[in-house]
Amino acid sequence: MKGVLGIFEDREDLVRALKEAPGQGWTQLEAFSPYPDQELYELVEPGKSPVRWMTLLGGLTGGICGLALTIWTTLQWPLLITGGKPLISLPPFLVIVFELTILFGALATVTGFLYWGILRRLFRSLPYDSRFSQGHFGLWIECSEGETQQVIEWIKKTGATEWKEH
Amino acid sequence: MSDQESIQPSPDTRPEAVRFEKVNRDVLRTLLPGPWYFALLAFCLMVFALGVWAWSRQVGQGLEVTGLRHPVMWGAYITTFVFWVGIAHSGTLISAILFLFRASWRAAISRAAEAMTVFAVMTAGLFPIVHLGRPWLFYWLLPYPNQRTLWVNFRSPLIWDVFAVGTYFTVSAVFFYVGLVPDLAVLRDNSTGWKRRIFAVASLGWSGSGREWKHFSSAYLFLAALATPLVISVHSVVSWDFAVAIVPGWHSTIFAPYFVAGAIFSGLAMVLTILIPARAILKLKDYITVGHLEKVAQMIIVSSLIVSYAYLTELFFAWYSENPFEQTVFLSRAVGDFAPLFWLMVLCNCLAPLLFFFKALRRNTVILFTISLLINVGMWTERFVIISGSLAREYARASWDTYSPSGVEWTILLASAAWFAFWFLLFIRHLPALPLAEVKESIHHAAHGSTPLQQEDNT
Questions:
Q1: Do B167 and A36 touch (CB under 8 A)?
Q2: Partner-chain contact B215 A49, CB within 8 Å
Q3: Domain of B119?
Q4: Contact B223 A49 (CB under 8 A)
Q5: Residue B4 domain-assigned?
Q6: What is the pLDDT of residue B172?
C-alpha cells in the first residue's frame, strides 16, 4: 500500500487535516491516537459500529440456547419429582436463559470487536509508529506513487511534525 | 489545598503529547519488581501450599476434619465463597456501572478494580469444590450428555450458581482483557526482546487507528451494558442458594437486593484495602488521589446504609410475621452462641462506616484503610452469621447445635486470601495498574472542559 504517514503532536491540527484531506482528493484515510477519540474515528469511518448487531445476535442465540437446553434436557428425563409443579417450570429456567443470554451476548460482542477492530486491520497492514501509543497522533493518507510529493507538501502545511513515505 | 479530583492537580500547559508520555512513564515505572516483591510472591505461594496440604487431609479423611456437623452442614467454606463473590462485585460496579453513568473519575481505579473482580471470582470458584466431600465429582454440576441421559436439575439454585458464576468469570475476564488491549500495545512499544514479542501477540497488533478505536469503544460500551445486569443477577443467584431453602433466617424475599448491596459494600471496602497501600508503594498518588478514595468512601456510606436497613427489615419481618421459628433464629443471633459475631457485624458494617460522614475522616487514608479492614471482617462475619447461625437454630430444638470452623477450615480460608494476593501481585507488577488510554482521555477532556464519554451516545 502506497501513501504518506504524518505524525502530529497536536490533536487539533490532525482534526483539521482530516477534514481538509478529502477536499484535496484523498479519501483513503486513517487516523491514529493514543486514546479513543470519537471525533477522529467518526471522520475516518462515519456511522455506527456494527458490533452492536453481534451483541444482539449473540444475546438472542444465548437466550434460545438456554430455553432449548433446559426444556429439552428436562424432557429427556421426565421422571423428576416436581411436587405437582409443571415439568417445564419456566421461572427457574429463566435464570439459565438470562445467564446464557449475557454469556453469548458478551462473547459475540468480543468476536465482533476482534473481527471489525482487529482482523480487518491486520489485513490492511498500515504503517505504524510506536509514538502513537505514547502521546502522538498520526494521519495516514493513501495515494498513488506519483502523488506522494504532493501529499507531503500538503501535510507539511497542516502542522505535522514529521512525515514518512511508504 | 486544591481538590485533587482531576487527574493532574494543577493546570498543566505543556503540550498533550508530552503529558501523555509522562502518564506512560509514571505507570511503566511501577513495573519493576524488586527482591521484596519476589519474597512476597513466594510467601503467598507457601501459604497457598499450606492450604492445599490441609485440603488434601480433608480429601483423604473426609469432611470430618472440618467443624461441619449436622445440622450445620454449610459453614466457613460457603461463607467464604459468598464473601469472595461479593468482593468481585464492586469491580464490575466501578468498571461497568460507573462507566455507563459517565462517572469519569472511575478511570483511575477501574483497572485495579477489574483485576480484583477476576481474581476474586477465581478465588470464590475454589470453595464450592473444596466444600464437596468427593471433589473429583464436581463435574456432575455441569449439564453434559452421559450414558443414562441423566441431566442436571435446572430447578436447583446450585445449578443456577454454576451458570451465574461461570458466566460472571468469563465475562469479567473478557471485559478485563478487552480494556487491556490498548495498554498492552503501550507495553509492547516500551519493551524489547522476548517481552516485546509476548506483548505484541497479547495486544493483538493494536495500532490505535481510528477504526480500531471505533469498534473498541462500541464493544466496551456493550460489554459494560451486559456486565451491569449480570453483576446484579450473580449475587441474586448466590442469595437464592439460601432464600429458596425453607430454613428460617434464609427464606426471605429481600435476600437478592440485600445480598447485592452487601456485595457492593464489601467490594468497595476491598478496593480501599488494596489501593491505599498500592498507591503508596507504586508512587501513584498523583493519579489515584485522595479525592478518588473519598468517592469510594461516599459509595460505602450509601451501601452501608442499605445493608443496615436490610438488617432492620429482617428483624422487623421476624417480629411482624409472628413465626416462632423465624423469631427464634433472630433472637439467637442477638443473644445466642453467635451473638459476639452478630454485634461485631453491626459494629463493622453499620456503625464504623458512619464515620465517613465526616469529610476529614474520609480523606484520611489511615482511617479509610482501618475502616475498610473492619468492613471486610464485618462482611465475612455477616455471611457466617446468616449461613451457619440460621442452620444452627433450625426448627426443632432437638436438632439445634453450634458450629465453629476447624483448623483445616481456617487454613484453607487463609490460603484463599494468599491465592487472591498472589494473582493480584502478579498483576500489579506486570500489567499497568491504571488504564493508560482512559487516563489520557480524561487528561484531554479535562483540558478542554468536556466530559469524556458523553460522546459514546453515537457509537
A1: no
A2: yes
A3: 35-458
A4: no
A5: no
A6: 95
| Mean pLDDT for all residues in chain B | 90
Indicate the pLDDT class of residue B11, thresholds 50, 70 and 90: low
Q: What confidence category does residue B455 fall into, taking pLDDT thresholds of 50, 70 and 90?
A: very low
The CATH number assigned to the domain holding B315 equals 1.20.1630.10
User: Would an 8 Å CB–CB cutoff place B207 in contact with chain A?
Assistant: yes
pLDDT digits (tens, 9 = 90+) for B134-164: 999 998 888 888 777 778 888 899 999 999 9
Q: Is A135 helix (H, G, I), strand (E, B) or coil?
A: coil
ipTM of the modeled complex: 0.94
Q: How many domains does chain B fold into?
A: 1
CB interface of A with B, residues 8-67, below 8 Å: 9-11, 30-45, 48-49, 51-52, 55, 59
CATH 3.30.70 fits A3-46+126-165, yes or no: yes
Q: Residue written as cell 439454585?
A: B157
Beta bridge partners of B219: none
The answer to whether the peptide bond before residue A91 is cis (omega within 30 degrees of 0) is no
Instruction: Name which of B445, B456, B458, B327 is nearest B19 in CA terms.
Output: B445
The residue ranges of every structural domain in chain A are 3-46+126-165, 51-121
CB contact under 8 A, B223 and A114: no
Please provide the size of chain B in residues. Answer: 459
Using CA atoms, how far apart are residues B201 and B196, in angstroms rounded to an integer? 9
Residue in chain A lying closest to B236 (CA): A95
